[in-house]
Amino acid sequence: MAIKVYIAEDHLEQRNQIVQSIKNYRLFSDWELEIASVAASGEELLASIDRENQWNIYFLDINLAAEAEISNGFVVAQEIRNFDPFGFIVFITVRSELSFLTFQYRVQALDFIIKDPAVNIQERVHTCLKTVEQRLSVLDTSQTIKLNTGNEITSFIIEDILYIASNKGHILSLHTKQKEYQIYQETLNHLEEQLEERFIRCHRGFLINTKAIRHISRDFSNLILEDGTTVPVSVRKRSALKTLQSKYVSIRS
User: How far apart are CA 57 and CA 153, in angstroms?
Assistant: First the structure.
């Protein structure tokens, strides 16, 4: 799956410099990297983002064109966080002191690139991309699972999955903290084997993340997940659930 890069920079020369830096990085990297959109304004960039894709990288100028509807890069980043909580955001600015505003806007920036003649922009872009590559490599080996979502193979952070349910037609329904996905060419039995350390098969039709459990009924016939979903517990699975009882928030009658 390609990692998509989005760029919002209103200054043409600097925009081209960032694009070329990314292209140069691809020449010596085995990483699949796609420049998905290059925009001059915040609204143009937001309209172009593929919101189904995960692990996007965003290079955002903090001060976009004043006449643009969205001229504040922090506001763009804030909107991005609404649908891409794990994307990598890199701010581009002439004022390094603005970095503290990432805490105010709560956007968790990966890095800042300062617009300064003394700064090698290409080197800074390459450093950011290398950091993302290293982080994703760690996630791929220990904290994620790759599944077929129909049009592509999608990586999911395991802890972000609340539960997986079986549907008609041999299609699974995977629910994360953000949205629901259809999973193809997979079975609950196989996923139960892969996720056995963190998930429990509480019912033939449900595989749930044990960390997502918030309440268990007193008779252990059902449980409630952190998003409010009520999941049934089969009779033969209730004894296994009882052994995990002490880890959960409460038991309801």
Answer: 18
Token pair for 143 = 């904290």
How far, in whole angstroms, is CA 80 from its chain's centroid? 11
Closest CA to 195 of 143, 241, 247, 153: 143
Backbone region of residue 185 per phi and psi (left: phi > 0; alpha: psi in -120 to 50; beta: other values): left
Q: Which tokens hold the place of 48?
A: 């172009």
Instruction: Give CATH superfamily name and number for 3-142.
Output: Response regulator (3.40.50.2300)
| Chain centre to alpha carbon of residue 183 | 17
Instruction: Report the half-sphere exposure of 22 (CA within 13 A, side-chain side).
Output: 22
* pLDDT lower than 50: segments of the chain: 249-251, 253
Domain boundaries, the chain: 3-142, 149-252
Let me know if domain 149-252 sits in CATH 3.40.50.1580.
Answer: no
